[in-house]
Amino acid sequence: MPKLIAFNGPPGTGKDTAVDITFKYLRKHNFFGKKFSIAEPIKKAVHNFYGIKYRPATIEAIKDKPLEELCYSTLREEYIVFAEMFVKARHGLNYFGNMAVERMKTIEKKTPVEDRIYLVSDAGFDEEIKPIVEYLGEENCLFYKLVRQGKDWKNDSRGYLKDVPLETVLNAGSKASFELEIQRRIRKDFLGGILEL
Q: What's this model's pTM, rounded to 2 decimal places?
């Protein structure tokens, strides 16, 4: 049974939506999905530094808009600068992957659940994914590459993963068709198709 289902794709391809769909779909079939963000420490540090106190839904909606309190930079730009030019430059490219594994261990210690499945919407660096795959076991990890017309990596430091097998999912833009496609993929790949719609 998978311990990790991760989505990889440029901004605007539906990664967070895919995690939400997967979370609801697994819960409907009595499996325990845990939404997990590799980038959570980056976001918290940047928000604390600038005194950003918006609600998560608001932050998601404005993260690509220039903000006065950031000297007209965007939150996404600040996340990238903090992660790439400060933390990774000082502590190595796999730092956030190692940190994610430690956070997983803490979660597992606090709330032991045998069939927990981590649902990740921000898998974008092989160096960060490698420690997670080593910890959970490659055979327990599913990765989906999300593709959507007009969406690319030009304003992002991440890219498509190269060191893990990726199943491609096309997001044609219709929420209903995307939801059905994600459910179909999870049903097919999760436990060899045992789940039914």
A: 0.89
